[in-house]
Specification:
Number of helices: 7
Keywords: Nucleus, RNA-binding
GO molecular function: mRNA binding; U1 snRNA binding
CATH architecture of one domain: 2-Layer Sandwich
Main location: nucleus
Protein name: RRM domain-containing protein
Strand content: 15-25%
Mean pLDDT: 73
InterPro entries: Nucleotide-bd_a/b_plait_sf, RBD_domain_sf, RRM_dom, U1_U11-U12_snRNP_70-35kDa
Shape: elongated
Structural class: alpha+beta
CATH superfamily of one domain: RRM (RNA recognition motif) domain
Length: 324
């Protein structure tokens, strides 16, 4: 029994083999259906195998230009290719929508002597072969020219002679190049020593003990104005202002001042804070020193800076009055 295939082109990409077989079954007996794909996607054409040649002709007459899934299909008798190449599309269907491009079989190429893929492949394919009159690269005028398509031998150019003293002569070992010595780095400039604080002259010291302020040293560096005030409140002390002295970077210097309303509250706080430990640091309170308002102005100007004065050492806003 002779079996015949028909070519079906311009297929919709959503058309599947069972659907195509069902359409052809209404005309003739279908033996097999094959839609050509690339991966899971249809290429828009295929082949339908029918039982007889008469069925194939009948299918061409009935199904050509019939609309399937919104596209008119092209149906024609499939032509056999030379042995081992399978069926081909019929003539006149190359431009049909959904039909693949026809490709010519590639000629075998010699990767070494012929054109190669990638960069330079096209240039090698389109290059004009050297004429026989051209002398080979070796410079031998009597050498026979290389046959067309053959790879030209690679020649190595002669090296330029070395300059005098550049390399070792025959029988001598090359000398190692002397290492270039680096210039010694200049010594770092020594920073100027800090100026020492001049000793305090007790005769010109016009400071007097304050009757309302305390100087508290050895404070934990983690204390802030608020936490310092809370310690005073928790100790049952009534104070007017309290602040921790800080540096320019707002870090604590480790001491602070507390101002009270009267001398009685000052003495009470002095007794309560003496020997008190905060974060494993024993506080060291003492009466703050302030400038004597009765001292002459000239003596005040000559007096050194008041280190323990709450007015001179305050560097942060104080906590206002807290009442226990």
């Amino acid at each position: 029994m002779v079996r015949t295939k028909v070519f079906v082109g311009n297929l919709s990409f959503k058309t599947r083999e069972p659907e195509l077989s069902q359409h052809f079954e209404s005309v003739a007996k279908v033996v097999g259906v094959n839609i050509i794909t690339r991966g899971p996607r249809s290429l828009g054409y295929g082949f339908v195998e029918l039982e007889t040649e008469e069925d194939a002709k009948k299918a061409v007459a009935a199904m050509d230009k019939k609309e399937i899934d919104g596209r008119p299909i092209n149906v024609d008798i499939a032509k056999a290719r030379p042995e081992g190449q399978g069926e081909t599309k019929p003539a006149g269907t190359e431009g049909a929508e959904g039909s693949p491009r026809t490709t010519q079989p590639r000629a075998p190429s010699n990767r070494r002597g012929g054109a190669t893929r990638g960069r330079g492949g096209a240039k090698a394919a389109n290059a004009t072969p050297a004429s026989p009159s051209t002398a080979p690269a070796s410079g031998d005028a009597n050498a026979s020219p290389a046959p067309e398509g053959a790879k030209r031998p690679r020649t190595r150019k002669p090296r330029a002679p070395k300059k005098e003293g550049e390399g070792a002569t025959e029988g001598q070992t090359p000398e190692a190049k002397p290492k270039r010595e680096r210039a010694p780095r200049p010594p770092k400039a020594e920073s100027a020593p800090k100026a020492e604080r001049p000793p305090r002259d007790p005769q010109n010291d016009t400071r007097i003990p304050s009757e309302t302020s305390l100087f508290v040293a050895n404070l934990p560096f983690s204390l802030t104005n608020e936490s310092f005030g809370k310690i005073l409140t928790d100790s049952g002390l009534k104070y007017k202002k309290a602040h921790v002295v800080v540096k320019r970077n707002q870090k604590s210097k480790g001491f602070g001042f507390v101002e009270f309303d009267n001398q009685e509250e000052q003495k009470k706080a002095l007794d309560a804070l003496t020997g008190k430990k905060i974060e494993d640091r024993e506080l060291a309170p003492k009466v703050a020193l302030v400038s004597d308002p009765k001292a002459p102005a000239e003596t005040k100007a000559q007096s050194p800076a008041v280190a323990a004065s709450p007015a001179a050492a305050a560097a942060s806003p104080a906590v206002e009055t807290k009442t226990a």
